[in-house]
Design goal:
Layout: E1 11-16, E2 20-26, E3 37-40, H1 47-58, E4 66-71, E5 75-76, E6 79-80, H2 95-103, E7 107-111, H3 112-120, E8 126-132, E9 136-142, E10 145-147, E11 156-158, E12 161-162, H4 163-167, H5 169-175, H6 177-195, E13 199-203, E14 219-221, H7 226-229
Parallel strand pairs: 1-4, 4-7, 8-13, 13-14
Antiparallel strand pairs: 1-2, 2-3, 5-6, 8-9, 9-10, 11-12
Helix pairs in contact: 5-6
C-alpha cells in the first residue's frame, strides 16, 4: 500500500489504545489512503514492547511523508506525561523522538481523544468530544481550536468513582450494555451543564453500542476511524 500517488503529503496516522494499535495512511485532504490495520496492544504495554509492535503494524504501509500519533494520556510538547491505561513506564517518554527514530520521518503526537476530536468536530461553537473505549477520554474545542489535555475520564462522576471507572471497558463488561447506556445518559447531562456545548461528539470503539439508539439533537455518534483521520490536523500550517 503506497501513498506516493496521492496529491500532497500523505500522513501515517497511528492510534495507540489500551487494547489495540491501529494505523492508516491518510491523504492531505484527510481521507483514507489505505486500509485500516489493527493488532492487539502488547501486554505488558511498556514502550519496549509497543514501539516494535508499531513497526510491525505499519510495515505494509509505505509512501508516507510524516507520522501522527494519538496517545492515551497527557502529551505536552510531544512528551508523554502519563498513560493510565498503559502503565507508569510511559511517563517522560519523548513520543515524537521515538517515532522519528522508528520511521525516519517527521512526527507529531497528541492525546488520542484530542486527535479524534480533530476528525469529528465541525468547527462551530463549543464542541466536546468524549471517547468511549478501554478508558474514557475527552477533547474540548472552540470554533475548531483545541483546548488541550482535558482529562475528563479521571474527573469525579458518581458513587465516588470517575467517569472512566463507571463508563470504561471494565465497567461495561461488569454491568452490561443496558446499565452502561443509562450511566452514559447521566454523564451526558453532567457534561452539558458543565461545558454548555453546542455539540457533543461520542467516539471510540464503544460508541458503536449507541448506534440506532435515539440521541438528543446536540449529540452525535462519531466513527471510530476519526481517531486516525484527525492525524492530518496536527500538520496544519506545516510546509
Amino acid at each position: 500500500m503506497t501513498g506516493k500517488d496521492r496529491e500532497g503529503p500523505t500522513t501515517l496516522c497511528i492510534d495507540v489504545g489500551g487494547t489495540g494499535l491501529k494505523a492508516m495512511l491518510v491523504d492531505a485532504a484527510g481521507r483514507p489512503a489505505s486500509e485500516r490495520r489493527r493488532i492487539p496492544t502488547p501486554k505488558p504495554s511498556v514502550p519496549e514492547a509497543v514501539f516494535p509492535a508499531l513497526a510491525e503494524l505499519c510495515g505494509p504501509l509505505t509512501g508516507y511523508d510524516r507520522v501522527s500519533l494519538g496517545f492515551p494520556g497527557v502529551v505536552v510538547g510531544g512528551v508523554a506525561k502519563n498513560a493510565a491505561n498503559l502503565g507508569p513506564a510511559w511517563s517522560g517518554v519523548d513520543l515524537e523522538a521515538q517515532l522519528r527514530k522508528l520511521f525516519g520521518k517527521p512526527a507529531r503526537a497528541l492525546n488520542d481523544a484530542d486527535l479524534q476530536g480533530y476528525g469529528l468536530v465541525e468547527g462551530r461553537g463549543v464542541e466536546l468530544v468524549v471517547t468511549l473505549g478501554t478508558g474514557v477520554g475527552g477533547g474540548l474545542f472552540h470554533e475548531g481550536r483545541l483546548v488541550p489535555n482535558l482529562e475528563i475520564g479521571h474527573a469525579p462522576f458518581e458513587k465516588g468513582k470517575t467517569f472512566e471507572e463507571r463508563l470504561g471497558l471494565r465497567a461495561l463488561e461488569k454491568c452490561g450494555k443496558r446499565r452502561w447506556r443509562k450511566r452514559l445518559d447521566r454523564a451526558v447531562e453532567i457534561w452539558r451543564r458543565t461545558f454548555n456545548f453546542d455539540r457533543l461528539h461520542l467516539g471510540g470503539g464503544n460508541a458503536a453500542l449507541l448506534e440506532g439508539r435515539p440521541m438528543p439533537p446536540d449529540v452525535r455518534i462519531g466513527a471510530n476511524v476519526a481517531g486516525l483521520l484527525g492525524g492530518v490536523a496536527l500538520w496544519r500550517g506545516a510546509t
